[in-house]
Write a structure and sequence with these properties.
475 residues, alpha/beta, TIM Barrel, Nucleotidyltransferase, domain 5, 2 domains, seven-stranded mixed β-sheet, five-stranded mixed β-sheet, 15 helices, 35% helix
């Protein structure tokens, strides 16, 4: 029996799988095993977004556009070598700000040139608003940048939606405003995406979900980018507070809540493969997607070291051996999970009745249920039936239940209860009697029986354990 695929199609699919295998942003399966680093070498931006305020020295703020320090290209590459020698699972380096990578082309491509020389094993990424892709497509190809993320918040050709998001756009020596600015930006974004796809570069499109502004527009964005051959689509909730100093934050535009995100993502998923595990990282983020270790690697520790010294520390051979061990573990984990995951499934594919449950999981890394409830800063949310499961989203909390020795005796659970209010089961490594009792208010089942077990099969088993799924009788 033939699968209907040509040899060329199979080869292309294999090439794509190779590109995303150890990329934590482009592969949901990879994000608990491989780390990324963002280097903040691009300060300038050629558009203004109402949700953005490029800030420095703000280590407690985790959102795009924020960084603690700006680096030169040389310093950035030294940091990559220094971090890569310490975090062996580091697989990707990206330029994501704090401004726009392609509004700072000299710094961006100098960084990639040096990375190609000193860290040839690492994957290269850049994020951009898309305004200057067409202008710099040759350099993108020259440095073998395999992954480009484009932020596209509207495909409204009238520019009316975009005008509510972008106060101005600076293009070809002139500043544009209102709908004219939005039209120019959209035209250049679509041209750029078309060029990237044509040249076999994997494109991820990010859209910021802004309540009451573009929530109805995003399904149209999903449909359009699917038609253009974009690899994956990411709906990111607006993060908006007055203290962020953004136009939306100061004018009272609220953050997008979990329920709105789930509703819009469900509408977009009809047309497009979604990225659901995004952490909306800072411009200087380091480590696994669920963590940020940027404050562990300070500039004074690597800036004065030579490239040769840092290359020895980086130790490509040792890193390759570490990645081989990761792949061995992933193979074992896949076997243990018994293909419980169905990323694109609908409710009746997950469940024999169409009934599904939401399961929250605490995990540090490695695809295991290996984090205590008290220390959890985020919860992985899965939808599950009696047949299979799919990952829905991660939900972060600003304050974990246990604040450590400094906050001993002070426990705040209201935010967590709100975060998990629609969930049916919590799978965690350990939970005390007090928080368990508190969570009974929201009628969530707390289960420790799957501590240190693989996440996916444990989610499926827990739902079968706690709920019955009686098949509907067909008359």
């Amino acid at each position: 029996m033939s699968c209907g695929c040509t040899h060329e199609q199979v080869k292309l699919q294999e090439n794509i799988l190779k590109k995303i295998n150890n990329h934590p942003c482009y592969s949901q399966n990879a994000h608990q095993h491989y780390a990324r680093i963002h280097v903040a070498i691009a300060p300038a931006c050629n558009i203004q977004c109402n949700y953005c305020n490029r800030k420095y020295d703000c280590s407690n703020e985790s959102r795009p556009g924020v960084t603690s320090a700006r680096l030169t290209p040389e310093e950035a590459v030294k940091k990559v070598l220094y971090v890569g020698g310490s975090i062996k699972q580091l697989s990707v380096v990206g330029i994501a700000g704090p401004g726009d990578a392609l509004a700072n082309p000299k710094q961006t491509f100098k960084t990639f040139e040096l990375l190609e020389k000193y860290a040839p094993d690492i994957r290269l990424c850049l994020s951009t608003n898309g305004l200057n892709i067409e202008k710099h497509i040759d350099e993108i190809l020259k440095y073998n940048i395999e992954h480009v993320t484009v932020t596209l918040n509207s495909v409204d050709e009238s520019g009316e939606v975009g005008a509510k998001i972008y106060p101005w756009v600076y293009f070809e020596g002139r500043r544009y405003h209102s709908t004219e600015a939005a039209k120019i930006l959209l035209r250049q974004q679509l041209k750029g995406i078309e060029l990237l796809v044509k040249n076999n570069i994997l494109v991820k499109v990010n859209s910021v979900l802004i309540p009451n502004i573009n929530e109805d527009e995003l399904p149209r964005v999903a449909k359009k980018v699917k038609e253009m051959g974009v690899f994956i689509f990411n709906v990111m909730p607006l993060i908006s507070k007055p203290e962020h100093g953004t136009a939306f934050g100061l004018s009272g535009v609220k953050s997008a809540d979990h329920r709105l995100v789930m509703r819009v993502r469900e509408a977009c998923e009809i047309d497009m493969k979604l990225m659901r595990h995004c952490r909306q990282c800072r411009a200087d983020a380091v480590g696994l997607l669920g963590e940020d270790r940027s404050d562990e690697f300070l500039k004074y520790e690597f800036a004065d070291k030579s490239f040769e010294e840092l290359q020895a520390h980086y130790d490509i051979k040792n890193r390759q051996e570490a990645h081989e061990k990761i792949e061995q573990w992933r193979a074992l984990l896949q076997t243990a999970n018994e293909k419980a995951m169905q990323e694109e499934a609908r409710k009746y594919e997950l469940s024999s009745t169409g009934e599904t449950k939401l399961v929250a999981v605490t995990s540090e890394s490695n695809g295991l249920i290996n984090d205590h409830f008290g220390s959890a800063k985020e919860f992985l949310i899965y939808e599950a039936g009696d047949r299979a499961i799919k990952f829905i989203m991660n939900r972060r909390v600003e304050t974990p239940y246990c604040k450590g020795p400094a906050g001993c005796g002070t426990y705040v659970i209201d935010e967590i209860k709100k975060t998990l209010s629609d969930c049916d089961i919590l799978l965690t490594q350990k939970i005390g009697e007090c928080p368990r009792a508190e969570l009974s208010d929201i009628k969530i089942i707390c289960d420790e029986d799957y501590a240190n077990e693989p996440i996916e099969i444990s989610v499926l088993k827990s739902v079968k354990k706690h709920f019955s799924f009686e098949k509907l009788k067909v008359c």
